[in-house]
Specification:
single chain; two-stranded antiparallel ribbon; 14 helices; alpha+beta; 4-stranded mixed sheet
């Protein structure tokens, strides 16, 4: 016989005050305990993996520590090194490996929370909120139109790409020697205040002054400039050295202002130049791997107030990230020619040389006797507001190229802000 015990806590204060105070106390305890990266810090923490809560085991905690140590992200005392922050900012964090890759987002959040305990707020939630039912595929998924769409896009791919190294070196030097490369001098803020005689934790009459931190380059921190740039930009040390040799003296002196920002900016500009070159030289190849339909139902039960009930989505609810996405889903539900659609999970991604790219929507549209299938990249407030950098644009162009090369169906790829953009695209392609 199995018994279930439910503990009910009756608090004097309101439930919101009670749970808020409890969460603050939890975060305070974590803040006091976590001063550096240790196995015991990671072990037992709950993170989200593929939409589901996951408790880090002792073995996984040990693997995290090995990963940090092997990549120079911790020093001998377990303190996180500046290299970790530089790699995060440059989107060049070392590969986690097959055992930790699915946990990457949660691990990163835990590491950053060592320095910013406020990030732990994102790891707590109000359990009293109404949750959505477990997601399940409905009849829309089984429609012939959506099945044709799903069979066309659920493949996994690899790519080959080539670019001219000499052109990359030339373009990188050209942009690095312009205003594109700006490095701010490190500054610190000194705050003075008068301690209250009664409330000793309170300070009044505070005044702050901002000061430049000089002689940064003479500190005990050593930088492998060529090695860190080469790793972050994913190019050879030889190519990196030639690019750095092309910098004019004034730009090289910026390293003294802020070494970490200097490396981060160099990496970013090189990656942007590489991104602009790869689009015309990338080719995708079909593999035997396919995405399973369970990626649509693997997410955790989201809060009810973040979802909208739909009539044409392949699950009964769409969990939206923004008002724009909610409006877009409403338009798809109301459009007569839309047969079925899906908000694609982040686990559905397309590989590119500058990072994986996850499209937002898959939409099956019937117009007369012609079936048009579209994969939509972005849904934002206005096309003018899509201020995408070179790397983001390269990901989108690679995705466009994929559907041009691979698809044997009428699959198209577009950026859209509303359903009318889709209709305009269909009309213009007639």
């Amino acid at each position: 016989m199995t018994f279930t015990i439910v503990l009910t806590v009756i608090a004097n204060e309101s439930y919101a005050d009670f749970t808020g105070a409890l969460q603050r106390e939890t975060r305070d305890a974590l803040r006091e305990r976590a001063a550096k990266a240790t196995s015991s810090y990671f072990e037992g923490k709950t993170i989200t993996v593929e939409g589901q809560p996951h408790v880090i085991t002792d073995r996984e905690a040990s693997r995290i520590m090995v990963w940090l140590d092997d990549n120079g992200y911790i020093d001998g005392n377990g303190n996180i090194t500046p290299k970790f922050h530089a790699d995060v900012a440059a989107d060049a964090v070392a590969p986690y490996g097959k055992h930790l890759d699915q946990m990457a987002d949660g691990i990163s959040l835990l590491i950053n929370s060592i320095f910013d305990p406020n990030l732990l707020i994102e790891m707590t939630s109000d359990g009293s909120k109404t949750k959505l039912p477990e997601p399940r595929l409905n009849a829309n998924f089984a429609t012939p139109e959506f099945q044709a769409l799903w069979n066309a896009i659920n493949h996994q791919y690899v790519y080959t790409v080539s670019y001219d190294t000499e052109s990359l070196i030339k373009n990188a030097i050209l942009h690095l020697n312009t205003d594109d490369l700006q490095v701010h001098t490190l500054r610190y803020i000194k705050i003075k205040g008068q301690q209250d005689a009664q409330e000793v934790t309170e300070f009044g009459n505070t005044k702050s002054t901002s000061n430049e931190l000089t002689d940064v380059s003479t500190s005990s921190v050593k930088y492998d400039l060529i090695g860190q740039v080469a790793k972050g930009a994913n190019i050879t040390r030889r190519t990196t050295a030639r690019i750095l040799q092309g910098l004019n003296p004034a730009k090289l002196l910026l390293f003294r202002n802020n070494p970490e920002e200097f490396i981060r900016k160099i990496v970013q500009i090189i990656r942007e130049q590489k991104a602009s070159m790869i689009v015309d030289h990338i080719h995708y190849h079909l593999t035997d791997g396919k995405y399973n339909s369970n990626i649509f139902t693997a997410s955790s039960r989201a809060d009810f107030d973040k979802a909208i009930q739909t009539s044409k989505h392949i699950t009964d609810y769409v969990v939206s990230d923004s008002k724009c996405e909610r409006d877009f889903a409403h338009e798809l539900d109301e459009a007569e020619e839309v047969v079925a659609y899906a908000k694609l999970p982040r686990t559905f991604s397309i590989p590119t040389p500058v990072g994986n790219y996850a499209p937002d929507w898959a939409i099956a549209i019937r117009r007369g006797s012609t079936k048009n299938i579209f994969v939509i990249a972005e849904t934002k407030g206005s096309l003018q507001s899509m201020q995408l950098n070179a790397i983001e644009n390269a990901k989108i162009e690679c995705c466009t190229q994929l559907f041009k090369e691979i698809s044997t169906y009428n699959v198209k790829y577009h950026k859209a802000t509303c359903y009318q953009d889709i209709i305009d695209a269909i009309t213009s392609n007639k």
